[in-house]
Give the backbone structure.
Amino acid sequence: MKSNKVFDNMFNVSTPHGTDAEPVHGTAIRIKELSERDRRRILMHFLSLDNEDRLLRFGSQLPDELVTRYVQRLDFGRDAVFGVHDDSFRLIGVGHLGFAPRTEVPALADVTTKEKIAELGVSVLPAARGLGVGTRLFERAAIHCRNADVDTLMMHCLASNQAMIHIARKAGMQIQRAYGEADAYLSLSPASPGSMLREAVQEQVATLDYAYKANNRAAVKLLRRIGVNKSDSSKK
């Protein structure tokens, strides 16, 4: 997640509220919206979570089979999935933003008059925790909701999930606890030209950064291959 100064200067991503690429402890966190082509990487991300992390993410210690089924059922046309890649293109953080009719969540039926509400689930690999990845995923999900005409964002987690509770409190969400679980919701402002531009720039920067890393990786592989071929030729 090293910062790319070319993109930082081009899109002014160094400002805290300008994009999601705010530097944290020397790293730049860029959130990219994921698609069908990323399904395998999403699966590998979830399968790498241990039992305790799966309990915190899904509310139970799902076996590999059920995790695989969950990923297979992701509907990228209906929901939004966001990810943070490291320099090896491994997903170190994933946020799944699911949309549902407000009638399916009776507790929030009176909170909004919009047709849909959104629920966010977040997971971050152990090596990337404490860097603000979860917070950035939350921020990206919130602005996506605003631009999708959804004014209520909720999170459901175990009351013991201190990381998610921290994110919820930091965002000013209303938190309700019962029977070892916690529900948090946040009322969002309507979309604005600024929010639309911000999300577009965030996605563009993340896409360009991803392509930049991919090209660099391909170039390194090519140079190594050329070096190996020259070494083999010199031995003949």
The CA atoms of residues 162 and 216 lie 38 Å apart. The first strand starts at residue 23 and ends at 24. The chain has a mean pLDDT of 85.
